[in-house]
Amino acid sequence: MNSMNTNYSIRDEIRDFWSERAATFDQSVGHEIFSEAERKGWQRLIRKHLGEGEGRAALDLACGTAVISHLMNDVGFKVTGLDWSDAMLAQARAKAKKRGTDIRFVSGDAENTMEPKDSYDVITNRHLVWTLVDPASAFKEWFSVLKPGGKVLILDGNMGKETWVKGLQKLWTKVTGKPPASHMSPEMMARHQKIRSRVHFSSQMPAEAVVDLLRHAGFTDIVVDRKLADIHWAQARKMPFLRGLERMVQERFAICARKPG
User: Fold this and answer.
1) Cβ distance 251 to 210 under 8 Å?
2) How open is the CA angle 218-223-225, to the nearest 5 degrees?
3) Diameter of the chain measured on Cα atoms
4) Rounded Cα–Cα distance for residues 123 and 134 (Å)
5) How far apart are CA 205 and CA 201, in angstroms?
6) DSSP calls for 164-183
7) Number of H helices, E strands in the chain
8) C-alpha to C-alpha distance for 16 and 131, rounded to whole angstroms
């Protein structure tokens, strides 16, 4: 990380952080899918809000290693995965080649995609919104890239909200001197917290705040779906006990919104 370079922005820091995580990203539950039950849960959620793909054009923003891109491909969408981490895109392309899928991958910024206006039927993203420096501008960009009548599906959560399980984890650390199991090293956790302190949603990100920004960007028919228990249960079963318990009580949600047309 080049902290001496004054041109090194928070966006550069976010890109570099995820690039460094690319090699091991798919090893974590909640990133890659480790059970057929979880896969079916995601596909159920996608079909519920977006329907069958039927060859419609989908843009998966901050696609990472293409987990959501492949789920969208599985239900029949013609998928473009966009990410500005070359390391993540290398993993995504290797996975697509191994699975024999025709997903298109492009390098780009989710806040300024450079994709043609009115060109996609749907936009998807997972765990992206909390990283946005300027979500209001990003949502306007997504609105412009969607075709009239197109939909955006946001998969995210209010990760900054304290839960009773987090309190239990802190007590566990205090009593045993051992931090709870994590997929990140202490150094990476510190970098993660430093980034989080400087993005728009630096503390909590309630669904209602995301909905307000979507509405201001022009989206209508906004639906907040918190019925994700099948996905979370499938993930929790593959996690250490306290992490799995935390997954079950976290405030996670899907938000679907439509561009009028």
Assistant:
1) no
2) 145
3) 58
4) 18
5) 6
6) HHHHHHHHHHHHHS-PPP-S
7) 10, 7
8) 13
pTM of the predicted structure, to 2 decimals: 0.91
Cα 206 to the chain's mean position, in Å? 15
d(C-alpha 7, C-alpha 47), whole Å: 43
Size (the chain), residues: 261
Residue tagged 């307000």 (tokens): 212
> What pLDDT digit, counting tens, does each position of 186-208 carry?
888 888 889 888 999 998 999 99
Tokens of 101: 């899928």
Among 165, 167, 9, 190, smallest CA distance to 84 is for 9
Helix (H, G, I), strand (E, B) or coil at 13: helix
Nearest to 71 by CA among 53, 94, 84, 86: 53
pLDDT in tens, 56-112: 999 999 999 999 999 999 999 999 999 999 999 999 999 999 999 999 999 999 999
